[in-house]
Amino acid sequence: MRGAPLPSTAPRPTEAMDTQKTTRDIVQLQRDYQAGFESLGGDVAGRLAYQHYLCGSTAIYHGNVIGSCFLPKLWDMPTLAFFDELTATTYRILQKAADHFCNDPAYRALFGFSPLLDYLICLPTGYDCVIPITRIDLFFDEKTLDFKFCEFNTDGTSAMNEDREIVNGLALTETFCLAGQRQRIEPQELFDPWVEKFLALYASTPQAVADPTVGIIDYTKSATIYEFEEFRKRFEQRGYTCIISDITELSYHDGALYGRDVNPEHPAYGTAHRLDAVYRRGVTAEIMLELEAEPQEAQNALLDGARPSHTLHGALALVHAVRDKAICMLGGFVTQIAHCKQIFSILHLPQTAEFLTEDECAFVRRHVPYTTTLSNEDIDLATVLGDKDRWIIKPKDGYGSVGVFAGRDQTQEAWDELVRDHSDGRYVIQTYGAQYQTLKTRPLPLDANGSLRFDTLAGAQAAQQDGSFNPLALEPWSILTGLYMYGGSFSGVYVRAGQSALIVGFHGGVTLGSYLVDYDAQAGLALRTR
């Protein structure tokens, strides 16, 4: 409704979530690591070795080496246990929302999806897990342990390879070795646990065969191919054939789905392979764009359950194979319930509160930011225009921060124009989450064009002598913490940092490596170390 009142101060979290500061303070862990860095004069040799490693690694996104920081994030057991609890609560809420979507037409209508997308979301998956893989991104305050959600990523969940390569590089530095003398610091394992969960979920389905061919599918233009190759390696180590296929190259005929590998250097290249188990990395929005470009007759045939009489290609081939149970696809389109941006608004509605517990409702009020459709019917636009720093605009069905605009990054004139241009119901408006800041530094300084100012010891020494490089200088960076969940269980941490209102690579954002300190593998968490 127009001009709906903004939420009042949220209540305290439930007792279970009101975790007190632990005896091992994670802030102190960072300070101890920083102290070692300072004792080494900023570890110039280590910084050079680390950057050289990254430049020769597979930490590549859209053809460029990812940005990173030299000081990682360290996570202790009490904090990891806290993450385990908050992700379990989040998953339970999202699972209930997805169940009600599929079983209650009135609740389904709240999302405003097309009939085709409604149909795809409600298709059975064959396994008992609403969201097989997700990364829950949140603004987490390390001093208070409070947090606000940023977004829920589902099938396109990525960046496991970024973390793997970063921690490999940091392990080469004297700063890391010095920290390892004080406590046990281990990198997390983000690949094998997902592969194992994937195979277990697949084996539980009626579609399961004894020796499945696995397909990792995405649109190549959006894909993180190096990451896919790492996942492929883990499937192959277990004896499975694994194909990396562009969705546009899929074909479906005679009750079978086929994919062609994208890597010319892989033995599978050049041949169509029948797929049994599909790891979907292509996001629903891109798949829907392709489906909606199909003739209406083809869309109707899908909705009507008609069997194709000819070979189908691309997204149409994929959804027919899913509908006909010719494959098992992890995840199913039901993951769109958590992925869409309007879920934040819907979680606050009375219709959602009806099936949540009191504790879950309190959790939503405290941690899910106020969100509504950006339109004259849903919010007073004058309020949005008059207080730009309070708001952020997001597409209802976006990913990768494309089309996201934070008011505090804009001039008033630019903000006014953005609000006017995006207030047609396709975007949401959300209260901007306060960000936790910590002191970090890039491995090596960049010039005005974003290139390394130097990459040799002689260059570093010259920059120190002329005063343009102080290896001990640190700057405040805002932190975004991502929590991976595999099969509904907390399985790892991913951290980004930025110095603008949007913490994303194309706004100068960087990735921080994550390490687990004195991790107890017997504590009952699903996390794994390498």
- Give Rg in angstroms: 24 Å
Shape: globular
Helix content: 25-40%
Query: What are the segments in which pLDDT stays under 50 over at least 5 consecutive residues?
Result: 1-21
Task: Considering the chains and any ligands shown, give keywords for the structure.
530 residues, Rossmann fold, 6-stranded antiparallel β-sheet, 4-stranded parallel β-sheet, 19 helices
SSE order and pairing:
Layout: H1 26-39, H2 44-55, E1 60-61, E2 64-65, E3 73-75, H3 77-103, H4 105-109, H5 115-121, E4 133-140, E5 147-153, H6 160-170, H7 174-180, E6 185-187, H8 192-203, E7 214-218, H9 225-237, E8 242-246, E9 251-253, E10 256-260, E11 272-275, E12 277-280, H10 284-292, H11 296-304, E13 312-313, H12 314-323, E14 328-330, H13 336-339, H14 343-347, H15 350-353, H16 358-367, E15 371-373, H17 381-386, E16 391-395, E17 405-406, H18 412-421, E18 427-431, E19 436-440, H19 457-465, E20 475-486, E21 489-498, E22 510-512, E23 514-517
Parallel strand pairs: 3-23, 7-8, 7-12, 12-14
Antiparallel strand pairs: 1-2, 4-5, 4-20, 6-23, 9-10, 9-13, 10-11, 15-18, 16-17, 16-18, 19-20, 20-21, 21-22
Helix pairs in contact: 1-7, 2-6
